[in-house]
Specification:
The chain is α/β, with parallel strands linked by helices. The chain has two domains: 100 residues, Formyl transferase, N-terminal domain (Rossmann fold, 3-Layer(aba) Sandwich), CATH 3.40.50.170; 76 residues, Formyl transferase, N-terminal domain (Rossmann fold). It has seven helices and seven strands; from the N terminus they run βαβαβααβαβαββα. Strands 3-2-1-4-5-6-7 form a seven-stranded mixed beta sheet, covered by helices on one side. α5 links the parallel β4 and β5. The chain is globular, with a radius of gyration of 17 Å. The N and C termini lie far apart (37 Å).
Length: 219
C-alpha cells in the first residue's frame, strides 16, 4: 500500500547516508523511500537500494540537464519529497520548479563555512582540519540553484580534539549524518503535513531560521 509521502533519494557514490534513510523509513506509517536515482552506474548506492527493495534508476548529464526525463520519473512514482544524499551535481531549474521547497540536502560542515563547488567529502574535512577550528558538524538545508546555499533546516555540532586527523573528523561527522539526517527529514515532512506556517524562504547567509527544525548543540 502506498504511503502518504514518498521520498526519492539522489546519490552519486557509496550511499551510506541513503541506506540509513532507507532503513529508518522501512516501516514508517506515513513516509516511504520509493526511488533511488544516481548519476553513476557504478555507485554502490544502487546495490544498497536493491538490498532494501527500493527501485533505482541511473541517468546521465543530458537526461538530467537537457530533458524532463528525470522529473517525469519522479512524477510517475508520485514522489512528494526529494532527498540528496551524497549527490554531487547542481540541481537544474526544472527539478527545482517541480519540487519547490521540497528538496533537501546534507552538507558535512557548519554552513556557511566550507561550502560551495568542490567542497564535499574529504575536501571539507581536510579544510576544517587545516583551519584549526575546534568544532564542525552537519548542516541540513533546502536546495536552491546554488551549491550549499539553501535555507537551513538543522545543524548539529561535534567537537574536534587536538589530535584528530581529517579522517577522525570525517568519522565524527558521519556519525552525526547517520543519526540525524533521517530524523530531520521526518520532522521536515511532518511540519509540512501539519500545515505549519514556516515563513518565507530566505538564504541562510542572511540569518534566516524560519524553517529550523532541529537545534544546535554538541554531540
Amino acid at each position: 500500500m502506498s504511503k502518504t509521502y514518498r521520498l526519492a533519494i539522489f546519490a552519486s557514490g557509496s550511499g551510506t547516508n541513503a541506506e540509513e534513510i532507507m532503513k529508518f523509513f522501512k516501516d514508517h506509517p506515513a513516509i516511504e523511500v520509493s526511488l533511488l536515482l544516481s548519476n553513476s552506474p557504478d555507485a554502490y548506492a544502487l546495490e544498497r537500494a536493491s538490498i532494501h527493495k527500493v527501485e533505482s534508476k541511473v541517468f546521465d548529464r543530458k537526461q538530467f540537464r537537457q530533458t524532463d526525463e528525470v522529473v517525469n520519473w519522479l512524477k510517475e512514482k508520485k514522489i512528494t519529497h526529494v532527498v540528496l544524499a551524497g549527490f554531487l551535481w547542481l540541481i537544474p531549474e526544472n527539478l527545482l520548479k517541480a519540487f519547490p521547497r521540497n528538496i533537501v540536502n546534507i552538507h558535512p560542515a557548519l554552513l556557511p563555512k566550507y561550502g560551495g563547488k568542490g567542497m564535499y567529502g574529504m575536501n571539507v574535512h581536510e579544510a576544517v582540519k587545516a583551519s584549526g577550528d575546534l568544532q564542525t558538524g552537519i548542516t541540513i538545508h533546502l536546495v536552491n540553484d546554488q551549491y550549499d546555499d539553501g535555507e537551513i533546516l538543522a545543524q548539529k555540532i561535534v567537537e574536534i580534539e587536538a589530535g584528530d586527523t581529517a579522517a577522525d573528523i570525517a568519522q565524527k561527522v558521519h556519525k552525526l549524518e547517520y543519526n540525524f539526517y533521517p530524523t530531520v527529514i521526518e520532522a521536515w515532512v511532518k511540519a509540512q503535513q501539519a500545515d505549519l506556517k514556516l515563513g518565507s524562504p530566505g538564504p541562510h547567509r542572511k540569518g534566516s531560521d524560519s524553517l529550523k527544525l532541529w537545534g544546535d548543540g554538541a554531540e
